[in-house]
């Protein structure tokens, strides 16, 4: 019966047109523990349906996040239960009648049990729907990163464009080094060039004096 379009149609009619299905008779589905606001992972969750007539059984259904209806159990007026596939018992759920209250127990609540829970009753060819009881885990929010490096969802870190102190400092440090290098290497290069020219001139003069001496001896 999971995701049955007939159940979906009945639920839509019951929610949108309550006058057709007996608006004067009200049923409520709620947590049995009135202090509970959200279910807890792996813990037992108990719901109760109140306002049902003693001589009529009750259906429990769940509307999941995708809008699909799931039949859970039918509890008869004699507290007999019928689960999915006409099973008499279930490992995931427990159900019973206690006076005029029809109770549903989720044995170990997990993500697949999240949704809106409804109870409905068929009496004298009239359908009566309860209000939905949401049963979802609390939404967790994460604070925005305040450091200079923000971590993305893929695990890659990137620098904050608003914080440029490190880049500006390194650029300021590199500029003096560059000018210092110019002032040091340019004079050295000039001195080396002058020494090279002096050496060339000296060699030329020495060769000329040798030639003159040789001619004078002859």
Automatic annotation (TrEMBL):
**Gene3D superfamilies per record:** Immunoglobulins
| Record membrane topology | Single-pass type I membrane protein
Residues in Ig-like domain copies: 42-130
Indicate the principal place this protein occupies in or around the cell: membrane
GO CC, any one term:
external side of plasma membrane
The organism's superkingdom is given as Eukaryota
Q: Where in the cell is it found?
A: Cell membrane
Q: Which residues form the signal peptide?
A: 1-22
Q: Is tRNA-binding tagged as a keyword?
A: no
Where are the membrane-spanning stretches?
182-205
Q: Does the keyword Glycoprotein apply?
A: yes
Q: GO biological process annotations for this chain's record?
A: cell surface receptor signaling pathway; cytotoxic T cell differentiation; T cell mediated immunity
> What name goes with this protein?
T-cell surface glycoprotein CD8 alpha chain
Native source species: Tauraco erythrolophus
């Amino acid at each position: 019966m999971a995701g049955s379009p007939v159940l979906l149609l009945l639920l839509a009619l019951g929610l949108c047109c309550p006058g057709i299905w007996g608006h004067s008779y009200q049923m409520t589905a709620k947590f049995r523990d009135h202090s509970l606001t959200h279910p807890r992972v792996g813990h037992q969750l108990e719901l109760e349906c109140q306002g049902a007539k003693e001589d009529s059984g009750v259906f429990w259904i769940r509307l999941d996040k995708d809008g699909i209806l799931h039949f859970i159990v039918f509890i008869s007026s004699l507290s007999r239960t019928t689960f999915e596939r006409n099973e008499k018992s279930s490992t995931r759920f427990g159900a019973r009648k206690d006076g005029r209250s029809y109770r549903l127990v989720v044995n170990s609540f997990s993500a697949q049990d999240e949704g809106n829970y409804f109870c409905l009753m068929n009496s004298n060819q009239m359908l009566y729907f309860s209000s939905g009881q949401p049963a979802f885990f609390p939404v967790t929010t994460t604070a925005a990163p305040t450091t200079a490096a923000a971590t993305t969802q893929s695990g890659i870190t990137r620098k904050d464009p608003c914080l440029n102190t490190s880049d500006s400092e390194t650029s300021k440090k590199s500029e003096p080094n560059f000018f210092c290098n110019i002032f040091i290497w340019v004079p050295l290069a000039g001195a080396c060039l002058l020494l090279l020219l002096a050496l060339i001139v000296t060699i030329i003069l020495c060769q000329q004096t040798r030639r003159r001496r040789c001619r004078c001896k002859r």
